[in-house]
Amino acid sequence: MSPAIVTDMSVRGIRPFVVFLGVAAATPALAHTGSIAGGFIGGLAHPVFGLDHVAAMVAVGLWGAFLGPPAIYLLPVVFPPVMAFGGALAILGLPLSGVEFGIAISAVALGTMVALEAKPPLWVAAVLVGAFAIFHGHAHGAELPPAADAVAYSAGFVIATGLLHLAGIAFGLLARWPAGRFAARSAGIAIAVLGSIFLGRLV
Amino acid sequence: MSLGALAIMMLLATASPALAHPPPLGVTGFFGGLLHPLFVPAHVLAITGLGILIGQQMPRWGKALPLGYAAALATGLIAIALAFVPRYAGETVPICALVAGVLTAWGRRWPEPLGCTLAAATGLAVALDSPPDAISITEANLMQFGTFLGATVLLSLAFGCAFRLERPWQRVGLRVIGSWIAASAILVLALQLSR
Q1: Which ipTM value was assigned to this complex?
Q2: CB A96 within 8 Å of CB A134
Q3: Which of A104, B75, B87, B135 is most solvent-facing, going by the fewest CB within 10 Å?
Q4: Per the confidence metrics, is the pTM higher than 0.95?
Q5: Measured between beta carbons, which residues in chain A are less than 8 angstroms from residue B182?
Q6: At B117, is the pLDDT very low, low, confident or very high (cuts 50, 70, 90)?
Q7: Residues A165, A79: contact at Cβ < 8 Å?
Q8: The predicted structure's pLDDT at residue A69
């Protein structure tokens, strides 16, 4: 047997082995789960880039500040878990009709409450805010990117929502002074008008 | 069928064996284990939530709680070292975070046995969800030891910080953080159930 023939036979024998190794080592193509940092930043940015969401979140904080204790902290405490419940419904594929409609109405209703300095009983305010939270959560849950790190994204998203509430509360606390009160009520009017514009687009 | 039974059935149907998480920052061995609880967000949620709850309920709740947590953590890690393969640890960790977050956000005075149960459940779940990603037994044991220290230190930090927050607005802040932890845990659970 000449050396050339030996080499040729060895190569031919190796080829199926290489193919076999390649097949054996193959792994299914999975959607990459994304990095923790990317997931967190994505979640943090998500609520901030939706003007309708931002308006409603700030309005929750503003209204809480106008209602005073215990509503000032109860509303921001109630909102995130209820919103997450709405998000869970979307993630589990349970439909909710009129989500965008509900979000636009939330901005109108909450903005109006702030503008009018409405002070209903605490349970009424909590139920109203909770109901709107489900719509906001559902919209966020439905838009959750599948490639994001789930836990980091969720944490970022919840923290951003909470920080928007805190921004609203901080702004609402200016209502102790006449000029601040005027500014806070004006912000309520602006939020209600913005909500009306969103509502008009939907209708 | 009640909602609770349905939820349990859904959890059982979606339960998966605990798989090793990738080593944090590629670090293995003792330091990999030490960093492990800090780099698995569900663990951070559960341990921080428990620490904040214990800090909020102190001094009514005794020091048995952190000790119970540490004992459960050690038990779980020993079980893993003895090649026990848990099936529901990944699902139990966010459930513990959810319970801790809700109890903190509610802000009432809770009975100590409830805290003891939650501390033990959290410690056990975190340990069973931390199988070491190591190639030798020595490295695996070092990693387990590191995980024990990391998880204990994280709880101590959360508990110590929360315990020092005594002013009314600071106590409100704890409730808000509890609410955020509960909300994150709800989303994590939903994502786990949907996959």
Answers
A1: 0.74
A2: yes
A3: B135
A4: no
A5: 80-81, 84
A6: very high
A7: yes
A8: 81
